[in-house]
Design a protein that fits this description.
heterodimer; A: alpha/beta; Rossmann fold; 2 domains; 6-stranded mixed sheet; 4-stranded antiparallel sheet; globular; B: mainly alpha; MetI-like fold; 10 helices
Chain lengths: 258, 277
């Protein structure tokens, strides 16, 4: 059985007099446990919408999404999501931000919650910043908070919506390696939306290329570099070949939107 | 030897206090200048002291009222009680209604036209009706203040709640937060800076109205105190009352600003520049 089954899902947005907007059309995608699927495509192709549908934050207009064979109809902490541009709580310190999920679920004793929060702070390298507010942090640090905030709920599926889109390129590379390491340790199913083809190939077991609006899956590429990946792969001619094949598909789409 | 450090420290202390005084003068010299001009024109009889008693005499009347006769305290107490009761009830009702309006469209479509019509109407015009219905006791004044202060609170709460980033609510939802947890842990804290802006405006309204309503119909309170002094031609007492209410209003505003600074340390101060008065 697949972990996530996306069955002929379409999403149409209607609001007022504006013409209906088809964000996704006939999406069919299955994700197995332990897969790292990366999604690339032109801006506004409904990649984010797909993640919101899987997270149960929006409902498909047509089709359905199954997780462990059960139809998604509302958010569930077992599906974690990291939003674009680090949507963390500005009035909470780093510590209280990371604690948030455990605090609201309140399934563990208080001292265990605090212990875990400290563990995750250390894991994302924010020790010493526990009592800082987000306004005092750099973009990369805020993104680490957002990632830890999601991971601490130990989701079975992790959805990431351009998590590295707004951090500088050095931090980006560091965080890519960190995300890779985290995934290798726990082998959870990850769906990772990005604008960067290199990032998609470097991280993914499979790269899914979306078309311009309405978003349809254009093509899927398997990436067979073995893990752990070090970054050396980027110099491999196979990497370059794959990159240009993906780029060809995307270029056609980008041109279409002009 | 032993005397030295303490002397150095006291010198240091003096330097600090001198710097504080200089800072104070630098900031408030227009006020000091105004007081000097006031004192001067009255003392030199350029303006008849009967109409404008010197600052020092008014100050003396104020200090006497406070510490010799002590009769002002009752008036302060009454005014603060009425203003406080009206303000607090407006904050409670205004926050709840603002929240409901922002979260439930039918509530909004029902209340929005009413609010946009009543908000600009000076509520003081309704005071005669309130007196007619509730007498000149506490109730009419508290209601007048509550009705007026309700509007800035409700409008700002509405704006604050509407302004909450959808993704923050989504973030909380995907981490298993319940509806009431989202309200308490996301919506309210995110909207709180807006609500506080409303409270600050409301408190200035409360001070205006307490004086006005007590001048119109009351047997006590600072508004009554000022108007009574005017009627008996005690102009120094009248000015004493005015200075007192001014100082109280200023103090309350400063207190709210202080609370804002303490409560919202997490905010990027960039957005608040320009409102620091």
């Amino acid at each position: 059985m697949f972990k996530i089954e996306i069955q002929d899902v379409s999403k149409v947005f209607r609001s007022g007099k504006a013409p209906a907007l088809t964000a996704l059309k006939d999406i069919r995608l299955n994700v197995q446990e332990g897969e790292f699927v990366t999604i690339v495509g032109p801006s506004g192709c409904g990649k984010s919408t797909l993640l919101y549908l899987i997270a149960g934050l929006e409902t498909p207009t047509e089709g359905q999404i199954l997780i462990d064979g059960i139809r998604v109809n509302k958010p569930d902490p077992k599906v974690g999501i990291v939003f674009q541009e680090f949507r963390i709580f500005l009035w909470r310190t780093v510590f209280k931000n990371i604690l948030f999920g455990l605090e609201v679920q309140n399934k563990l004793p208080k001292n265990r919650q605090i212990e875990l929060a400290k563990e995750y702070i250390e894991m994302v390298g924010l020790s010493g910043f526990e009592n800082r507010y987000p306004k005092e942090l750099s973009g990369g640090m805020k993104q680490r908070v957002a990632i830890a905030q999601t991971l601490i709920c130990s989701p079975e599926i992790i959805l990431m919506d351009e998590p590295l889109g707004s951090v500088d390129s050095l931090t980006r590379e560091v965080l890519q390696h960190e995300i890779m390491r985290l995934w290798e340790k726990e082998r959870k199913a990850i769906l990772f939306v990005t604008h960067s083809i290199d990032e998609a190939i470097f991280l993914g077991t499979r790269v899914v290329v979306f078309s311009a609006r309405p978003g349809v899956i254009r093509e899927t590429f398997d990436v067979d570099f073995p893990y752990p990946r070090t970054g050396e792969e980027k110099n491999d001619p196979k990497f370059g070949k794959l990159r240009s094949r993906i780029w060809d598909v995307i270029e056609r789409e980008v041109v279409k939107t002009r | 030897m032993t005397g030295r450090p303490s002397r150095a420290a006291s010198e240091e202390g003096m330097k600090v206090s001198v710097r504080l005084i200089i800072g104070f003068v630098k900031k408030w010299y227009p006020l000091i200048l105004l007081i000097c001009v006031w004192e001067g024109v009255s003392r030199t009889k350029m303006v008849d002291p009967f109409y404008l008693p010197p600052f020092t005499l008014s100050m003396k009347a104020l200090l006497e009222g406070l510490f010799v006769n002590g009769d002002i305290w009752l008036h302060i107490e009454m005014s603060l009680f009425r203003a406080g009761a009206g303000l607090v009830s407006s904050i409670v009702v205004g926050t709840v209604i603002g929240l409901l309006m922002a979260r439930y469209a039918p509530v909004n479509s029902f209340l929005d036209p009413l609010i946009s019509i009543i908000f600009p109407t000076p509520k003081l015009a309704l005071f005669p009706i309130l007196i007619f219905w509730f007498g000149i006791g506490q109730m009419s004044k508290i209601l007048l203040i509550a009705m007026t202060c309700f509007f800035p609170v409700v409008v700002n709460t509405y704006a604050g709640v509407k302004n909450v980033d959808k993704y923050l609510i989504w973030n909380a939802l995907t981490k298993g937060a319940s509806g009431s947890q989202i309200l308490r842990k996301v919506i309210l804290p995110a909207a709180m800076p807006f609500i506080f802006t409303g409270i600050r405006v409301a408190s200035s309204f409360a001070f205006i109205l307490i004086v006005a309503s007590e001048m119109i119909a009351a047997n006590d309170g600072l508004g009554f105190f000022i108007i009574a002094a005017e009627r008996t031609f005690n102009s120094d007492v009248m000015f004493a009352g005015i200075m007192l209410i001014g100082t109280l209003g200023f103090g309350v505003d400063r207190f709210i600003l202080y609370l804002q600074k303490r409560l919202f340390v997490w905010r990027d101060m960039g957005e608040e520049r320009g409102s620091g008065i």
